Amino acid sequence: MSKLLHAELFKLRKRGMTWIVLFVTMGIIVIINLLLYAISRIALSNPGSGGMSRMVNILDISASIPFSLSMLSSFGAVMAVILIASTVGNEYNWRTLRIALISGKGRVQLLAAKIISVAVVVIILVAVSLAVGFIMSIITNAWAGNSLDFSFFTASYGWSQFLQFWRTLFIILPFMMMGLLFAVIGRSAMPGIAVGVGILFLEPILTPLMRAAGGWVAEIPSYLFSANVNAINALSNLPRVFRFGGGSQQAPSTIEAYLVLGAYVVVFTAVAFYLFRKRDVTG
Known about the structure:
The protein is mainly alpha-helical. About 75% of the residues lie in helices and about 0% in strands. It is built from 9 helices and no strands. The chain has helices spanning about 1-15, 15-45, 65-95, 95-100, 105-145, 155-185, 190-215, 225-235, 255-280. Helix 1 packs across helix 5 (about 105-145) and helix 6 crosses helix 7.
């Protein structure tokens, strides 16, 4: 298994897609921080603008880590879907999967190695992007002429953000496994990417419509991704000014959110392994 993991990590390190995903995620974090800086400048120049005047504290360094993690729970999920779907699906397209299997590697071990290697890359991606977000927060505060006060970084704050880091990875996991499942079903990277990314963007649009429908249909969003992701993200100490949309109507409890997302991970993973073992691997 260790040789398989080493091989999969080597392939991921050498593929351009891995680096593109990393740089795109870092770029998004940089752009968001620059936009926050621009908004804060507008707010300062219009002190009597009502609600906008509350935006002056968005450069607060203490908010940079939870805010970056909140952003990465969505952007990171997109990048994880692309990575896992490409890693598995492209093996079908390139006709290299059969070669790997006939070389003596079992199907379960091979797929497990791919999942673990992508998970390692996603952890690195989130950690690096988080560091970029924190550095950008320091830079934008310096531009704004704010004093750099790190007294907020207490042991309790560090522990809270450590837990939120792993919560963010847990949030990403069901989307990643969904991308894996549909890459296996479609024997290609494109179905995995299309379904995984499509769900991420379509569900927030469909959820208000289902809520408005009433009856049993209004209960469906509580068992989908968004409501449960929001319930877990709510555990971060994110200032109110950063809490976009999504209200708390019919929000599931934290335990329910973990159970629902965990169930998705188990089902997606189990079905992916079953199909990968039973079906022909020809793309």
